[in-house]
Amino acid sequence: MHYSIRSLAISLALALAFPALAADTAAKSPSKSATKAAAKSAKKPAAKTAAKPEVAAATSGDFELAHNLSPEGEKALQDFVDRFNKDTSGNLKLVRLQKDDKPAGLNLVLRHEMTDVLNQSKYLMPLYQMMAKAGVKLDADGLSSDLMANVVDGKGRLVALPVLYATPVLFYNKNALRKAKLDPEQPPKTWFEMQGMLDKLQDAGYSCPYTSAWPVWVHIDNVSAVSGLPATSDKGQLDFNGLPQVKHVAMMATWTKANYFRLFGRRDEANQKFASGECAMITADSNKYIAFRDAKNVDLGVAPMPYHEDVYGGRKPSLADGASLWVGTGRSPAEYKQAAKFVSYMLTPENQISLVRAYGGLPMTAAARAAARSSVLKDDDEALQAAYVSLKGASAKASPTHHVSDVDAVRVIADEELELAWSDKKPSKAALDTAVSRGNEVLNAKPELKKAQPF
Question: Looking at 379, 399, 419, which one is the last position of a domain?
């Protein structure tokens, strides 16, 4: 089908989808002593005790940092911890973070593991409180405001450290754009502009012009934020079934029908499809630059996440989220002094740079961001700059913002309803209405999950 005909059909389908919705939207208001540990261990079967030697080691002086990173991520973190131990005569030890386990002394928690954090608040201590106990100054003002959501309390105090945060951006294969006779240095700025490019990529032989990782994080949380209509209310209720969100989901449904958009899973399954060269474009977290830059079949380009040009007031900031560092309770003063030392170590610009090199995340402080813009890191600068543009316009003072994708049960519900809409089994408005209703039932049954963070 020729572009003009296909685009006309898509535009007509979208136009017909919204008269009733507009009326419906107009009527709606905007919206933790070695003896006890040994005794406990003795009660367990021998096999289980042997399976967790790090716990016994921890009682003899080691302090644990628990995580659930991939093997590659774990190796990079182990290198960082080894350097910390060498530089500070520390004894920090990595252990695996198992679901429903009591938190370790330090815990690196991924975005989709936040449900466990919210459920275990009595075993966690706010970061600012731990640093005060250790007698170490914590300068929260030094952190970039766009990383503060979900890690500050109502008084602006830092309760966790946003260590490996990222924001969604658009990655594209410049080779694909060249093949489609498109300018590889001119990626789309808006979703509408992107539609025409996807048509040409399809005509150039791409069966997957566009895909997306973490669809709820990208297409619910971030599309809502960029459109100026947050996906949750101040009280933690879900609210992502307004006109901008429905319009976006409906557009994605027409893109699916036209074979412009392909969905490969609910998490990061799509990343490999882009890295292999199968898909020409992907929306994914900016830290995926590390994984994509050396892909054999990709001449990598990066751009800010697209926006809808017709939203009131223009493009709003995208959201930043990712792995954050949380403190467990019940540790000794000496252990907390080491934890505070580790936090301070992570906050130095040079060590943030090493984390950026390893993980591609956003530097936490202004000083580190300035260093990241230097020639030392110019090979990574493209992804960072695209991320900064996506985050542009963030308010000077961040407040806790609940993300739909942070609560796993709610994310799964939203994924289910998106899939129904995008497979033409349910109208987009009905799918989002159901997702909001079902999700709010989950949150109302477990009010602690409505919080952006546990304190």
Answer: 379
